[in-house]
Specification:
single chain; alpha/beta; UDP-N-acetylmuramoyl-L-alanine:D-glutamate ligase; eight-stranded mixed sheet; four-stranded mixed sheet; 14 strands; 36% helix; globular
């Protein structure tokens, strides 16, 4: 259902992940509200960082490209990523007022508060010179975080990365990762997203994100179905508790979710991406890779944090042997 050249390239199991990474604080123990907390645990956060960690935990190699603030938070983020085995060789340190994202997130389902600080975000400083330093020829795929499209110079860097990847024959994979507070207007987001995703091989987003890309929420699904008539080989339209619709040039199928006792709603999207791409890299059929992505998402929402909650392959195998996905 996906062309053989794209699958063959993914199966090299080497990936570039481009976008944001930062520090996440979680009130402890789980269930504690931020205003009542006296203890916090610290973890790597940010979509590009989380996805890179997920891929490494599932047996792939991953290099992250972002910018780290030249301070303790930037050093924490870089160090933790290295401890997971994520390469950060080409990440640039930036001074001045640039800061890595800091998020304070509750581990609870009802009224879960996620307070994110992104003024002067360091990852937005990433530019086309940073992109040129990457080795696209040896990459099995380039995973792009759509948040980086919200500002310059990182927006131009993402488009340059798409061009370089395509020149090298490396699949481009975009998680739309729309954060409205990062954009100046919905119209700007629509214009930029629609351009970027039309150039990528794999596009993953939810109903809101596809609605933003087409300019109207109600038209999001129809817009997603038409994308596979162009460059994208694979489009996944996520529907939350209703599962997802997978669209390719040769067919469409529906996938449900795994029923679990969730602790929190965050991290599922990054886990899904990691599980899906690692599944394809490990030779799974597309249907099974989507199921593995769903299983990874289900595991992560039962654990504190995102990066540290990403499952290993053995944990996924155990989970899949004891849980059944809904239809």
């Amino acid at each position: 259902m996906i062309n053989d050249a794209l699958l063959s390239r993914l199966q090299s199991k080497t990936f570039l992940s481009i976008g944001r990474a930062g520090m996440d604080f979680y009130p402890e123990p789980p269930g504690t509200e931020i205003e009542d907390a006296t203890d916090f645990s610290a973890h790597v956060g940010g979509s590009a960082g989380n996805i890179a960690v997920a891929l490494v935990k599932l047996g792939c190699e991953a290099e992250l490209l972002t910018c780290f603030s030249d301070d303790a938070v930037g050093r924490f983020t870089s160090k933790k990523l290295g401890q997971y085995g994520v390469k950060t060789t080409n990440c640039r340190r930036v001074g001045g007022e640039a800061r890595n994202t800091l998020a304070v997130v509750e581990t609870r389902l009802i009224d879960c508060q996620s307070v994110i600080y992104r003024n002067g975000a360091a990852d937005f400083v990433m530019d086309t010179n940073d992109i040129e330093a990457l080795n696209y020829a040896n990459s099995g795929g380039v995973v792009l975080s759509g948040t980086a499209l919200a500002d310059e110079p990182s927006r131009s860097a993402i488009f340059a990365a798409i061009d370089r990847a395509r020149e090298a024959g490396a699949p481009t994979i975009i998680d739309m990762d729309y954060r409205p507070y990062s954009w100046t207007s919905a119209a700007e987001a629509q214009s930029v997203y629609s351009d970027a995703i039309s150039r990528c091989d794999v596009v993953i987003g939810n109903d809101v994100e596809f609605g933003v890309a087409c300019g109207t929420y109600d038209g999001g699904f129809n817009y997603a179905t038409k994308l596979v008539n162009g460059t994208p080989e694979l489009v996944i339209f996520k529907k939350g508790e209703l599962g997802s619709t997978t669209l390719t040039k040769t067919g469409t199928f529906e996938t449900g979710i795994f029923a679990v006792q969730a602790l929190k709603p965050t991290g599922a999207g990054d886990a899904f991406m990691g599980g899906l791409i690692a599944g394809l890299a490990n030779g799974m059929e597309l249907t099974q890779a989507v199921i593995q992505g769903s299983a990874s998402a289900a595991i992560v929402v039962t654990r504190v944090a995102c990066s540290s909650a990403m499952p290993t392959q053995s944990e996924l195998t155990t989970f899949l042997s004891s849980h059944t996905i809904s239809l």
